[in-house]
Amino acid sequence: MIRPKFNNTSVTVIASIVFAAFLFLLPTGFEGALQFRDAVKCKALVEEVDNSRIIDTGLIRTGQQVCSVRFLNGKFKGMTAQGWNMLTGSLSQDKFFVPGDKAQVVVHWQEAELGEGSEDEIGGSEGKIEFLSVNLIDYYRLKGELILAIAFAVFLIAFAGGTGVRSVLSFVITVLTLWKVLVPMYLKGYDPLLCGCAVTVLLTVIILSLVYGFDRRLLSSVSGALLGIGFAAVLAVICTKTFKIHGAVMAYSESVLYSGYEYLNLTRIFTSSILVGASGSIMDLSVDITSAVNEVVKKCPSISRLEAVKSGLAVARAAMGTMTTTLLLAYSGSCISLLMAFMAQGTPLYNILNNNQVASEIINTIAGSFGLASTAPFTALMSGVILAGRKK
């Protein structure tokens, strides 16, 4: 009887799939918000619009946009109704629909008694369904997002084969862990810094095990990555306290407080977000160095541990030159509009550097860069010691 052979990578993939399925089914405890509990969510086609109730003052539009919509799926598929799009004057939040747009709508309705009738009742001559409200929430983007995600997964798998499959799996696990574990723990009032550290360690072990399986390379890369993440966490705590940065600099953080979660410590959540954000680049650097040293050892099994460490340090120096710039560009890109506003208003540089939002991005960049700087030599050291010197 021939039995299938499983290597370390196969076992890791199977375990990761099981873990991903568990996360997918895991309830967060925050399902079913009150405003959506008795509503039906569906896709609708905007057929006509009435802009007569909109007040237009140049860039700012306020008022109500009345839209005639036809439902494209769900319980009311094929029916038409009158929907409302509320404009508050916020360019970042408001939507302005035109005929032909597809919208995500939230419908509140009730069963009407026979014989009743109004212009909002749909359902044939009986008039059984009465739409209480039809609110246009946003443009319908789910189909495009799904196509984009599938294309990304197909490209990875076609280009990298089994490695691409593991990359997609690590991507899915990361998304599910952040949404199903980290965010609910924040909202439930657990210590954000401890939660961030625990989740980051978990993700580091899972992602790197998908790369290497359970062997010496995993030990080398994980040890280097965890050291860098720990260093970044310590520095983030010190800098956040020293620079007196309040966690409200995070987008939408005040909205969370006003939603009934006033007990949250936004500053510690901000500090936790720094190490979570830096962990990706740190893992990347640890994998680069570990893989480079492993290739050197494979090509030259007789290499000494000292020479392997020197090779790892050479790779580390080259990689650090671009990794720190990667962090800088990533964080700078997220606040480019803020920098444009400062320049357009002629704000002096010393005022810009003292701004709390700019200071928070500086902490993000510097803390992450210090994490990379500590990861590189330690990973090189661990890779040389663990991977080399075993064969003469």
UniProtKB/TrEMBL annotation:
Q: Which Pfam families match?
A: YibE_F
- Has UniProt tagged this entry with the keyword Membrane? yes
Superkingdom classification of source: Bacteria
**What InterPro entries does UniProt report for this protein, alphabetically?**
YibE_F
Organism annotation:
Treponema porcinum
Q: Where are the membrane-spanning stretches?
A: 6-26, 146-162, 193-212, 218-240, 327-346, 366-388
This one is known as Uncharacterized membrane protein
Keyword set, alphabetical order:
Membrane, Transmembrane, Transmembrane helix
